[in-house]
From TrEMBL:
The modification N6-(pyridoxal phosphate)lysine is found at K69. GO terms for biological process: putrescine biosynthetic process from arginine, via ornithine. One of its GO terms (cellular component) is cytoplasm. Residues 40-388 form the Orn/DAP/Arg decarboxylase 2 C-terminal domain. Catalyzes the first and rate-limiting step of polyamine biosynthesis that converts ornithine into putrescine, which is the precursor for the polyamines, spermidine and spermine. Polyamines are essential for cell proliferation and are implicated in cellular processes, ranging from DNA replication to apoptosis. This is ornithine decarboxylase. Keywords: Decarboxylase, Lyase, Phosphoprotein, Polyamine biosynthesis, Pyridoxal phosphate. Its cofactor is pyridoxal 5'-phosphate. Its EC number is 4.1.1.17. Pathway: Amine and polyamine biosynthesis; putrescine biosynthesis via L-ornithine pathway; putrescine from L-ornithine: step 1/1. Belongs to the Orn/Lys/Arg decarboxylase class-II family. It catalyses: L-ornithine + H(+) = putrescine + CO2.
Length: 460
């Protein structure tokens, strides 16, 4: 495993008693004397560490293979590489990124059931052997282009209760799975296991139990045909923030007994998963600035004559990031976002129905259809939490608008823990990561003054 230095990550150390939110406030304060108020992210790599330790406590038998497509930021991938995770790559470029950080090919699964021939050849040339398939055509391509492939059969699941369904595109039925295993045997291919994905944003944990049961059936089919399968890949679908309807531990409470029932620890089957949003969603906070504003007066009826005018207006706020940028998650990931006020409103401050729009000239560029906010001035900031998943990875520069800068931070205790895990691995009881990383001074509102000492210690 390659040993990274802080300079490799390009992050800012948090001083004792400071947190990522303080750095957001610091950067906003620094911009107050300038017209340069571009949108920006602050990403806490220590939060990624916490998620990893939480995973290892809740799913001790399951090795995470991070889904790079969710957020391919180099600092994130490097952090997870240091923690010893595997990687779910869907393309040549994702494989290149992961291997450029010194990750061994054995820690990569090429988890795209429909691959371009040239990219199969690339995987073969660079030692990536594990890859998924769900069709006879894919088997024939692999047989022709990758003599050392270790194939994983992806089966379809009931993902009707997921936010983003995937089995409409990928996955073999149980009936066709037998036919594919027979065809693989004819082609002399090595089938090492079964994978599935219950859909991104799973809302029913029992879906995992049924999928694990179906995987057991396919393992038994393979055994009848002479295959000794040793890998189960339970895919993704894990929530990335604690405000989701389905909690992470509610899912693991279903997965663990299902694994014990169908793939007990002494079965010789290795279990992996492909979490994406789980690791990165809550690590990122996005700050956007109000660049324009429109007041829309509603028509008043005679019965409204005595109204004091408090609710006679709707406010349209325009900010400097939108659905073609970071908020592409609204279109592609069915995300629902709501802003947090940068400044705490006064107790008696009136609020109004509002909508929030991005900066492009497209009428589709709407971030929030309706919310309730005070009458905010131009140049005010709005904050969006849980913005690490399927945001920066798919953003564009449509209309010439730049992507927000990302400022990475980490506490010294988190950095020390990552270094310890990188060199020594995880041994003994897994404790909560760095309780001091979330001090009481990490405020939700910025009406309080910042401490005199600045948030960053130094940028590496």
């Amino acid at each position: 495993m390659s040993s990274y230095t802080p300079a490799d990550f390009d992050f800012t150390f948090l001083e004792e008693g400071f947190c990522a939110r303080d750095c957001v406030e610091q950067r906003i304060n620094e911009s107050s004397m300038s017209d340069d108020k571009d949108a920006f992210y602050v990403a806490d790599l220590g939060d990624v560490l916490k998620k990893h330790l939480r995973w290892m406590r809740a799913l001790p038998r399951v090795t995470p293979f991070y889904a790079v497509k969710c957020n391919d930021s180099r600092a994130v991938v490097m952090t997870l590489a240091s923690l010893g995770t595997g990687f779910d790559c869907a393309s040549k470029n994702e494989i290149q990124l992961v291997q450029s950080l010194g990750v061994d090919p054995s820690r990569i699964i090429y988890a795209n059931p429909c691959k371009q021939v040239s990219q199969i050849k690339y995987a073969s040339a660079h030692g990536v052997q594990m890859m998924t398939f769900d069709s006879e055509v894919e088997l024939m391509k692999v047989a022709r282009c990758h003599e050392n492939a270790k194939l994983v059969l992806r089966i379809a699941t009931d993902d009707s209760k997921a936010v983003c369904r995937l089995s409409v595109k990928f996955g073999a039925t149980l009936k066709s799975s037998r036919l594919l295993l027979e065809r693989a045997r004819e082609l002399g291919l090595d089938i090492i296991g079964v994978s599935f994905h219950v859909g991104s944003g799973c809302t029913d944990p029992e879906t995992y139990s049924q999928a694990i049961s179906d995987a057991r059936c396919v393992f038994d089919m393979g055994a009848e045909l002479g295959y000794n399968m040793t890998l189960l890949d339970i895919g993704g679908g894990f929530p990335g923030s604690d405000d989701s309807k389905l909690k992470f531990e509610e899912i693991t409470a279903v997965i663990n007994p299902a694994l014990d029932k169908y793939f007990p620890a002494d079965s010789g089957v290795r279990v992996i998963a492909e979490p994406g949003r789980y690791y990165v969603c809550s690590a990122y906070m996005l700050a956007v600035n109000i660049i324009a504003k429109k007041v829309v007066m509603k028509e008043q009826s005679a019965s409204d004559d005595e109204d004091d005018g408090a609710n006679d207006r709707t406010l349209m706020y325009y900010v400097n990031d939108g659905v073609y940028g970071s908020f592409n998650c609204i279109l592609y990931d069915h995300a629902h976002v709501l802003p947090t006020l940068h400044k705490k409103p006064k107790p008696d401050e009136r609020t109004h129905p509002c909508s929030i729009w991005g900066p492009t000239c497209d009428g589709l560029d709407r971030i929030v259809e309706q919310c309730i906010l005070p009458d905010l001035p131009l140049g005010e900031w709005l904050l969006f939490e849980n913005m690490g998943a399927y945001t920066v990875a798919a953003s564009s520069t449509f209309n010439g608008f730049q992507k927000p800068d990302i400022h990475y931070v980490m506490s010294r205790s988190a950095w020390q823990r990552i270094q310890q895990i990188s060199t020594q691995g995880l041994h003994g009881p897994i404790e909560e990561a760095c309780p001091s990383d979330l001090p009481s001074c990490c405020r939700k509102e910025s009406s309080l003054e910042l401490p005199a000492k600045p948030c960053p210690a130094h940028v590496l």
